[in-house]
Amino acid sequence: MRPSGRKTDQMRAVSFERNVSKHAEGSCLVKFGDTHVLCTASLEDKTPPWLRNSGKGWVTAEYGMLPRATGERMKREAASGKQSGRTQEIQRLIGRSLRAVVDLGALGERQISIDCDVIQADGGTRTAAITGAWIALHDCLKWMEARSMVKVEKVLKDHIAAVSCGIFANQPVIDLDYLEDSAAETDANFVMTGAGGIVEIQGTAEGKPFSQDEFLTLLGLARNGIDELVSMQKTAIG
Amino acid sequence: MRPSGRKTDQMRAVSFERNVSKHAEGSCLVKFGDTHVLCTASLEDKTPPWLRNSGKGWVTAEYGMLPRATGERMKREAASGKQSGRTQEIQRLIGRSLRAVVDLGALGERQISIDCDVIQADGGTRTAAITGAWIALHDCLKWMEARSMVKVEKVLKDHIAAVSCGIFANQPVIDLDYLEDSAAETDANFVMTGAGGIVEIQGTAEGKPFSQDEFLTLLGLARNGIDELVSMQKTAIG
Amino acid sequence: MRPSGRKTDQMRAVSFERNVSKHAEGSCLVKFGDTHVLCTASLEDKTPPWLRNSGKGWVTAEYGMLPRATGERMKREAASGKQSGRTQEIQRLIGRSLRAVVDLGALGERQISIDCDVIQADGGTRTAAITGAWIALHDCLKWMEARSMVKVEKVLKDHIAAVSCGIFANQPVIDLDYLEDSAAETDANFVMTGAGGIVEIQGTAEGKPFSQDEFLTLLGLARNGIDELVSMQKTAIG
Amino acid sequence: MRPSGRKTDQMRAVSFERNVSKHAEGSCLVKFGDTHVLCTASLEDKTPPWLRNSGKGWVTAEYGMLPRATGERMKREAASGKQSGRTQEIQRLIGRSLRAVVDLGALGERQISIDCDVIQADGGTRTAAITGAWIALHDCLKWMEARSMVKVEKVLKDHIAAVSCGIFANQPVIDLDYLEDSAAETDANFVMTGAGGIVEIQGTAEGKPFSQDEFLTLLGLARNGIDELVSMQKTAIG
Amino acid sequence: MRPSGRKTDQMRAVSFERNVSKHAEGSCLVKFGDTHVLCTASLEDKTPPWLRNSGKGWVTAEYGMLPRATGERMKREAASGKQSGRTQEIQRLIGRSLRAVVDLGALGERQISIDCDVIQADGGTRTAAITGAWIALHDCLKWMEARSMVKVEKVLKDHIAAVSCGIFANQPVIDLDYLEDSAAETDANFVMTGAGGIVEIQGTAEGKPFSQDEFLTLLGLARNGIDELVSMQKTAIG
Amino acid sequence: MRPSGRKTDQMRAVSFERNVSKHAEGSCLVKFGDTHVLCTASLEDKTPPWLRNSGKGWVTAEYGMLPRATGERMKREAASGKQSGRTQEIQRLIGRSLRAVVDLGALGERQISIDCDVIQADGGTRTAAITGAWIALHDCLKWMEARSMVKVEKVLKDHIAAVSCGIFANQPVIDLDYLEDSAAETDANFVMTGAGGIVEIQGTAEGKPFSQDEFLTLLGLARNGIDELVSMQKTAIG
User: Fold this and answer.
1) Which domain holds residue A24?
2) Which of A181, D19, F12, F223: disulfide with F33, CB 3.0–4.6 Å?
3) PROSITE patterns under this entry (chains A, B, C, D, E, F) (predicted)?
4) How close C195 gets to chain B, by Cα (Å)?
């Protein structure tokens, strides 16, 4: 039924490879099937201007795709001189999602920048990015803890993971790949904490509008998927 | 309880003033309380490059705020040389929402550009913009119908309206004004059709994560509010 | 003779609507016939870098047009990434004109930014903008006076108003609308004070060069028109 | 009285050096005292898009200053990524002034671009640029005439020259140098044809407003100066 | 002597991983020690404008670094809105180097874009990029050959590889890593063909000028290193 | 043999005109035949941010071409909104070359900016620029010495001059003009000190790769040419 042969509630093979960067304080190569995102966490010893002398720090994110991460080569954003609306939308989402589980006061007047660069894309890059970014952020905080800068459990209050769900061929399915994503009638992204709290919901009717019941089915699929992702994050950092 | 004294399920005073532009094919000044958005619809007799020779047209939207629409003057985007991520996110949302009820084939190879310019802001500019943009779009299609270019009912399949809901002071409330919006724990925007179909859902935890039940309460509030907005649209164009 | 049926020395209906913005310290919606410009004055409690520690303040202006203020939709400057030469020329003119009647020392180390946004255009947007901007500036200073920050009569030395004149169909006429403006052989903008002093003159031959006598006729027309505008300003703030 | 010791109606030493560029179809290094502007005319065998198939050509101008043309080094506009408002204002003025004496139909569907680059600045760069640009334009047309493309006298209907006048130390003076320009109360630029027709007038009160009589005195000074400049142009091309 | 303990004529461990991209027509992850560059080749079925109807194709390259490829996070070029001079210099070099061994006529009217993205940097990113880009280009041509579009040996006339050499601690050494690069007195990059022809030489004195003899020593080191790299390329594609 | 009739080892007529700018602390109009570059040195009493409190100063360079310096008019970089990769490459080269002979500590916390603007181009603009820039830099230091700010011989350790060599029609030749440059098989730029030390070598095969012997022949030609240029610099400042 699904192009990949997956069951409707079956996510792609997910993996986290930690410490993939020689330089970054935390890093993770996350794979959701053929979607590969390199997430690095960079610690800077200053907070943004609007937080100076507030005692608080900041966590921010940037997102990019390599030009040939996709089936057709896209124009390099650095060459075209600006980031697309889509890019900005995604990096704002990643930053917001991470900050939902961070105690910025416990972080202190520092900034952690998470770069999520899509090495290869096959649908669901933003949800993979959020899920992997959490690992990179965690490892950056571990690095800081090793230097007595913070206590990880004070700063990082919970897990964050994300998954997309959608209605494809009249079936609610989880973790859409590119083939599904480009044909889905409805596409929704869910970001939740380890405790099951909802942090972000973004649902869009691509074709005909969707009903509340359909939406609740997607939310249910997402909840199970995110539970699974959080378990895998726990194993990865265990 | 609410700064404005409104009840939790009470929207602000909403009004639509049509034909406010001497030049535009359709126009509407929409007010949600102190949030005032001028929506104009401009017909262009060509479709974007990627639709040429497809027989299909396009509906797109641009969004802007006058620099002193807000409590503190913001930098003029034309002067700073780029549109913010927030601006791009909103104009993409408006365009998507309108296209959800437009039959692009019935429109023919033409483009309608909806400009939503916030004259004065007091929270909820994007939802007011979508709701008013539908009127401007409708009136543009009427203008075209009067010239035998299209049949309105063939192109415009349904109403579209939008409203924000959120959790303010632990209470689910509808149609947040700026004071509520800046203090809300959860903020969600809903876009629905006249038939009650959901077109867009965007929910964000600003503070602590929200639960499924809280979200369903917000969705219920939104459904009632959007029903009301659609009635008012019907009266306005009646 | 004139497309509008006006006499050669007859301006369009002019009106000033004050306090149109909930947020701005001063605001005015000025109408010269179908040309409508929203002028807001924003007080900032710092002066530009080059005036720091000089004891002097600054008055500056920005100008913009909504994309569909005109007969054909224009590209949004924020989207195209820069302000046109015409926009910059006009906003420099507005700022210079206002500063000609302001005692920057009496203002103190503050900046007042006047935003002139053309809601609807039908010729003469820059002269309407200057004339309305003076009201917004005046009201901002009144706001400051009410808070004991300045004395209005110390800062604002005189009125400023502006009008265009031109040679249309071989006739010198005042306050050209778009139809006249686009067909005029000569087009001139005059900015004068309440006392009749000249602050700016900009005359351009669009077709054949003009003579000194023709120019003096235009100047005479402008003088009368500006006297009238200043009277109307006095009534408006009275 | 004047810093340079000149009489009030005395222009600086003016010279035109033709054919200073190996490549350009027409070129002129114009000097008004220490203000030196290199003007080149470049013929392109196509007209701008909006004139295609109109049978008409176009004359346009661009203006720039070398970074150290001035007393203090200015930021290079190419490096800062945009042309200032002042630059755009001046290049629009130069283009308009030249087009006032050109029969665009007689030019045919071609474009002549005049580049005016200020090698050294000492006040009055725009008026020197216009006066020198006319020579470059003339020589470009001569080059075309030699190739039987146009008849110079059909295309170029008259001379164009420009000079600044101002009120310095309460005295009306002509052709202000930098010292005078930066201290003048009133500053006006005049562009006229060989026949004495006025093409552009730009007068600005830098300090207190000026009167009609003062303005007429400046206009009289300008008229004499421009007569002189036109004579010198005639000698130069003679 | 060298921070890495390598001998003066010893390159770092070099490896080529082919087919690392699901989408690109050719791809290679090249590693020179801790310098890792992902090279993808993208075939487009059109040639740049200046080659249209010439029968010739084009090979071009773009270069980028992930923000945290380096010891300190660098600003993302897409966010800062332009590519640095260094980036442009390097991508021009890569493109030129590859074109030196390509018969553009045999390629036909197509363009191959090579993207070289530095995943991790430790000195020598441009030389690694050139060496890996050749593999990606080769594999793209193989892909085309499999579709009967070209003959590889007609298009690709030879190998291209590159290495840096420099004088570090008064010793000529090959393949400088970051520690050496930042302390080297002289730094030179060499690009050569499989047949030993020189395609590019770039030598720069960072501290004191260098002599012809020193330069010839570096050239000798480079020649041996490039011979080795070409052998490794042959093995990789063998 | 050569289009200009020059011998293979014969440079074009070279001249240096000093003090060509009324404003700059040092200036030189350098001519290599029909290539004319205006070099100005501007002293600023502050060092770049990264050198603050280091006791060191900085020498930097910017490069530009007037739009009609070339056979066909090029787009003005200030109008197109960015400097090309070629421009940035050249100005980085000029700055690096000059700094190779400057003791930045002896300069003190000041910056000297060298602007090299090509008034007319006929090949070899970068080498002419470097050679002339040295004169402008020298004269700026002399200006400073006259004000007891520095000792020239402490800051400026040696001469710097540059020349291009290439293989044209199978012959190694020096100082290529445009006709030769655009047809050369190999093109190399050499920057050397008065003492004969090499500061920069940039060699590029435009057509077929070159051999080490060919390269050494070019280097020999360059050495003689640069000796000559240094002698001429000595005469010029003598």
Assistant:
1) 14-237
2) F12
3) RIBONUCLEASE_PH (PS01277)
4) 31
